[in-house]
């Protein structure tokens, strides 16, 4: 072996509980992770969404049950918890939609630079959180 040969890098297994909390995630990675989390959240809450849709369109009586879920509560949960659950769904839908459009745009235009990833992540977060605040204010009766 010649002296000019560089030593090979040493790879090790990571300890998720020790190493990952200290890792600094770039903003684009956080948005990508939130995109995955929002998809899982929408999937897990899909039965609740189907129930809400069914109650809202079936009849006048079921629409009354739908509206009562937000004020009186549902399944032993107070109405405020139901509203928070719906607010989580609103955020999940908006974030998943906007982050999905971001990914489609990056795929179509081959915009995969670090600068574009960061700026598009900021726009994605600003839009999804801003729209969630606006719709959440309507949900909680602030306007």
How would you portray this structure in words?
The protein is mainly α and 143 residues long. The protein has helices at 16-19, 27-44, 46-57, 60-71, 79-109, 114-139. The chain has one domain (27-139): Up-down Bundle (3 helical TM bundles of succinate and fumarate reductases). It is built from six helices and no strands. Helix 2 crosses helix 6 and helix 4 (60-71) packs across helix 5. The mean pLDDT is 87.
List the helices and strands and how they pair.
Elements: H1 16-19, H2 27-44, H3 46-57, H4 60-71, H5 79-109, H6 114-139
Helix pairs in contact: 2-5, 2-6, 3-4, 4-5, 5-6
Give the CATH topology. 3 helical TM bundles of succinate and fumarate reductases
The CATH C-level class name? Mainly Alpha
Radius of gyration: 22 Å
Specify the number of helices.
6
Distance between the termini: 75 Å
Total strand segments: 0
Structure classification: mainly alpha
When the domains are counted, the total is: 1
Short description:
The protein is mainly alpha-helical. Helices cover 72% and strands 0% of the residues.
Labels describing this entry:
elongated, 3 helical TM bundles of succinate and fumarate reductases, mainly alpha, 143 residues
């Amino acid at each position: 072996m010649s002296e000019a040969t560089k030593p090979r890098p040493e790879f090790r297994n990571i300890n998720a509980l020790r190493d990952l909390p200290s890792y600094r995630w770039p903003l684009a990675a956080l948005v990508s992770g939130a995109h995955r989390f929002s998809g899982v959240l929408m999937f897990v809450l899909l039965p609740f969404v189907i129930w809400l849709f069914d109650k809202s369109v079936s009849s006048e009586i079921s629409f009354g049950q739908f509206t009562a879920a937000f004020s009186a509560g549902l399944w032993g949960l107070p109405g405020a918890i139901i509203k928070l659950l719906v607010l989580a769904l609103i955020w999940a839908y908006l974030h998943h939609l906007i982050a999905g459009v971001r990914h489609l745009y990056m795929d179509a235009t081959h915009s995969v630079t670090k600068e574009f990833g960061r700026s598009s992540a900021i726009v994605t977060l600003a839009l999804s959180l801003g729209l969630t605040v606006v719709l959440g204010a309507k949900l909680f009766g602030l306007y």
